[in-house]
Design a protein that fits this description.
By secondary structure, this protein is an alpha+beta fold. About 50% of the residues lie in helices and about 15% in strands. The chain contains eleven helices and nine strands. Helix 7 crosses helix 8 and helix 10 packs antiparallel against helix 11. About 35% of the residues are buried. The mean pLDDT is about 95.
Amino acid sequence: MAWRGVTERFDAFCANVVLTDAQLNDGVVKSTGIISKLNLAYYEHEHQTLNGLWVGSWGKKTQARPPRDIDLFFELPTEVYHRIDRVTGNGQSQLLQEVKNILQPSYAQTDMRGDGQVVVVAFNSVTVEVIPCFKLVDGRYYICDTHDGGSWTIANPHAEITSIETGDNLTNGNLRRLIKLLKIWRRECNVPIKAYVLETLVTKFLQQSPWRGNSTFWYDWLVRDFFIFLVSRADTHLVVPDGQMVWLGNDWKSRAERARDSANSACVYEQYDMIEEAGAEWQKIFGTWIRKELAVAA
């Protein structure tokens, strides 16, 4: 029987990168604690979810184990925007400092700093990056940028979240699963592609893949074909969900080519049930997150 190790290998890999209940709960507790403190300061109540919005991987449910950063929008009252916009100097920097000063007494033992667009709250287990924001009438947000004297930047996290949710529904849940696996490759091989760019690339790849709705039995070909697709996108532009056009460059291309070649070899080994040999090639891409030896090999 050919390909008899693929399902077991990729089922185990997919399960291995999902956050544990303890990790999810830890992220929720830390995020809601921050929301509560900011609500008390700006709205005079301590609700743990109102005015907060998970964005990034937590908002899109594309986070891979272990959790690193949680991106958390906090929507401030409109009057705060007008107050900050009138100040002399870098009002955006002053806003980050204001948010930091509100949170600091509750997290006195936690490293905290303002950085560009966020207040970084570096807990021991996970870092929460708090993004103060102001909601616009079209559902987008103003967020602050402290660089070059300070300015406001428009962000559209709902477009990213909707893109992932829609794509996942159209691919039998494969979009989020494949994104998580490829984030392991990005981390293990130190690939210089931003997470949201990688997510968009996976979305566009699956839109044209004949295997997009198939089971994990097809994941060897799915991973191989993604790397073939990715290499072809070097030195091209990519339109991300919020409408921005991103230049992909090629500083990641050699890593993608090595992954493509290893995936090609692994697929051949999988076809002939050379399970350990296939595993050795997969581990060149994903490290020990993916198994080399399997029960079917016994």
